[in-house]
Amino acid sequence: MGNVDEKGSAEKIDMVAFVACAGHAAASPGFAACKTCAEAVASGFRRAECRSGCVGVGSCVSSCTKGALKLENGHIVVQRDLCDGCGDCARGACPQNLIVMIPRDATNFIPCSSREEDEEIVRSTCGFGCIACGECERACPVGAITIVDNHAVIDYDKCVGCSACLVKCKKKIIVDTLHDLTRLKDKVAFVKCSGGSKAQAVHQALKVADCHEAMKVDCKEHNLCTSGCCGLGSCTRVCRFGAISVVDGTAYVDPEKCVGCRDCIRECPKKLITIAPYRGVKLVPCASQADYYDKALVCDSGCTACRDCVENCPNGAIYMKEMHAVVDTDLCVNCKVCQYVCGRNVIREMKVPPEVELQRTALERIEVTVEKGE
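-> structure tokens emitted (374 positions)
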């Protein structure tokens, strides 16, 4: 990367230090007594800690003669305005090899160096951890991203600063200083329940504070839907973007804030949250497997499996699955017929701002470019 002048000599690139770790999953309280990061690493990690992340002792801080590194809340922060790009911190100061030199004008960053192979361990350990799914690598139109030691790495000699990797990243951990993550997205989370506050009230009366704990409650004994939202908000606590809240006793996803990272999907013990296209389509907020009579007794907003929407959809986009309707979003053209014939007003429309259609067109062009190998 860098320009070449008329004499053929390469122009020097202005570099800056970057810490390839965004979380605090490795900074164990037990490391507080350690004098160096190397000592902390040698002492070992607990089960819930990232073995590849920043240990938060700060050995690298003293390596910087410009005072550009500081230890803040157990994590190393680079003060870019003070960093002169000398690279001293990147030459052995970090025993985890987390500090690298990158072009100062770089706009895309992957703040993770996890070498963990198990995706579930990464997800449970750190909200910012790369799961090495390879979506960013496949989406990059210039081949600037590769998976190295189970985490994605950007080759800045090739990176052109587009948003392809940002959009396709399953966990939405890629930092992009040019684009708004909440707008550049093709999918968002959706809660398959609109059951109201009944379950939440019952659980609160029973002194149950967590959705996972609520799974032990006998729903039939308390006249609750066995498939409905517990209303206790375990999903809200894992959302890094504040996109989920409990509204009238049921979890609700704000599509404008959601970026489709899927953390909430993993957290929901009832598997009520799914991923849906961020465009104009119809969705059915119900996952009940009960028959019509049992369903009618516990919920007045659930799908009764009457099949009216299935039989009247002109595109064949709706089908029945386990006693509730499901919309095939690939076939849905948002014609509104299903909403018209639904006697319980169950079916919802995914409403999106007009500019999203322009964004989707841009994303489709990226996908075509990647498929053609251009």
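The first helix runs from residue 37 to 43.
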